[in-house]
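Field reference: sequence -> structure
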Amino acid sequence: MSDLETLKAEVKKLSAKAIQAKMDLHDLSEELPVNWTSIMSVAQKAHDAFAELERKREDLKTLEKV
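Structure field:
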């Protein structure tokens, strides 16, 4: 598998991970005030997932230009 194909597969996995993190955050918000103590950890997971996805998308754009 080429570097480009590998990176595309990684972006796809990270996208799914980010979507799940978003849904977890959404679900938590609908349940409030139940489990309010987990807001920070769930939000941090969502933040980290989207940050990693954004970095990999930038890497993919750079690799596609070459």
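Note: The two ends are 17 Å apart (CA to CA).
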